Amino acid sequence: MVSEALTNVAKYAQATQATVNVSVGEGLATVEVADDGAGGADPRSGSGLRGLADRVGALDGTLQLDSPPGAGTRLLARIPLGGGVNGAPAARAAGDSWTPVSPTRSRA
């Protein structure tokens, strides 16, 4: 996820800086990739963000996007450790203003 997100930064963002933060807590691995580039990333145009969502979703995780035009892009993945709690997907934290990125295929 991180390498693909950073590839997107290099190809499209026109960014001068990117950061990667990884943390583990409360049964989740949380990965955030952010840049100071052009923003305006849209999962409906192209397959890159949907592909990331597919891979994160295959691990019962969630992928969220914050990318206002002109203000950079932030991707946040939350992936349950050990298959989630009773197989449930990762919960969204209260107060999140992120836009969920939906996988392109449904999970059985």
Question: Can you walk through the features of this model?
Answer:
- It is a single chain.
- By secondary structure, this protein is of the alpha+beta class.
- It has one domain (2-83): Histidine kinase-like ATPase, C-terminal domain (Heat Shock Protein 90).
- The chain has helices spanning 2-13, 48-57, and strands at 18-25, 28-35, 62-66, 73-80, 99-100.
- It has a five-stranded antiparallel sheet.
- Residues 84-97 have low confidence and may be disordered.
Features of the shown structure:
20% helix; Heat Shock Protein 90; five-stranded antiparallel beta sheet; 2 helices; 108 residues; alpha+beta; 5 strands
Can I get a quick summary?
The chain contains 2 helices and 5 strands. With 108 residues, it is an alpha+beta fold.
Fold blueprint:
Elements: H1 2-13, E1 18-25, E2 28-35, H2 48-57, E3 62-66, E4 73-80, E5 99-100
Antiparallel strand pairs: 1-2, 2-4, 3-4, 3-5
Which secondary-structure class do the elements indicate? Answer: alpha+beta
Number of domains: 1
CATH architecture annotation name: 2-Layer Sandwich
Shape: globular
Average pLDDT confidence is 82
- The total count of strands amounts to 5
Rg over alpha carbons: 13 Å
Q: Note the main sheet.
A: 5 strands, antiparallel
CATH topology: Heat Shock Protein 90
Number of H- or I-type helical stretches: 2
